[in-house]
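Fold this sequence, please.
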Amino acid sequence: MSNATQDPAPRLTLSGNRRLSIAPMLDWTDRHCRYFLRLISRHTLLYTEMITTGALLHGDRERLLRYDAAEHPLALQLGGSDPAELAECARMAAACGYDEINLNVGCPSDRVQNGRFGACLMAEPALVAECVAAMRAAVPLPVTVKHRIGIDAHDSYAELVAFVAQLEAAGCDAIIVHARKAWLQGLSPKENRDIPPLRYDIVFDLKRDFPNLPIVLNGGLLTLDAALESLTRLDGAMIGRAAYHNPWILAAADQRIFGDDQPLPTRQQVLEAFMQYAERQLTAGVPLNAMSRHLLGLFQGQPGARAWRRRISEQAHRAGAGIDVLRFAEAASNHQPNV
């Protein structure tokens, strides 16, 4: 898309797909995970892991931006705070065919803070707005922001409204709100996912005060029922770790959330399709355990799930491991219905 910088209009839209999305999760939502999840749901919006602008500008951008066409709709999440650098990375993403650019303003880790991006940017709303405006001017893709409801002492509703107002004025196409504040000092990233209380009421209030801005709820959504409940008041729901540990909660998403009446897949159909993908990747030199680790939750809650996980964990990391490991794990789990 060499002419992407000339005219940002017309804008693309993901309003329908945004009804349900899977959160960007570092070390988890890589391209193999996303391909697997796409086999379960055709419509759910998927996000990459966060990729920093520095990594894209100075690293192996081809590897970092690689994905399979089957993963669409697919959003790229960027970490950074320099408007010009973010605009350049957005151009790379547009040229690669991504469907959305998302800016991470929610990660509380020390490393991210030291790089001046993530949740600490909530203290600099004007800079975040400048970043959004720069990316929006650079590409014809939706530009969104994922953020918290506050950080440290900057946690009043008035401050949050002022932050969101600047994003809206800058042309932000949607916000994804993790309904917890982040403590940048004193809590680890893991603790920041659990300890600060969930405040869905604050996100609902944002929708009341910004009725024309698409708002997606993130944080504590564990089931499709919870996602559907949030959709009665908001524009979208984003599920995180619950969908990774038990991906089959997405199996009914196409019907229940997107109104697609095609028959639901079976776990066996999904596994067979993924094994065909894995065979291609093995031929390209990808080790089996880089892919199989994302399959551990496929049979969560089913007879034989423990045997399935054990076989993969014991065998997939070995040198030369191939598709036979997955077939053996499936057979072992099916033959142990009480495990």
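The chain has two domains: 17-256, 267-334. Residues 267-283 form the longest helix (17 residues).
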